[in-house]
Design brief:
The structure is a single chain. By secondary structure, the protein is mainly α. Helix content is 81%, strand content 0%. The chain has helices spanning 2-21, 25-49, 54-76. It is extended.
Length: 84
């Protein structure tokens, strides 16, 4: 349902030209790879829940945010604002 609504919103706000842009191979490849990596990370996180204590899971969860920020900075050169 969400995919259908998103497609209709894209056509409604940007027209067919904008809708065709989201189906180009380049962006689709990049976002598909990112989605697969996040899915794998979520799988590993769920697997670890059975063997971790509560505090250890909290540390793992918070470190995931830090690692994501470091990767974003290293790969894209994007820095976070002081409040982030």
């Amino acid at each position: 349902f969400t995919l259908i609504v998103a497609q209709l919103m894209t056509v409604g706000f940007g027209g067919l030209r904008q809708w065709r842009e989201i189906w180009r191979a380049g962006p689709m490849t990049v976002f598909s790879l990112i989605g697969c990596l996040y899915a794998f990370g979520d799988f590993l996180e769920l697997e670890s829940l059975g063997s971790l204590s509560g505090p250890a899971y909290q540390v793992l969860s918070q470190s995931k945010l830090i690692v994501t920020a470091i990767m974003l900075w290293g790969i894209k050169g994007t820095k976070q604002a002081g409040l982030q």
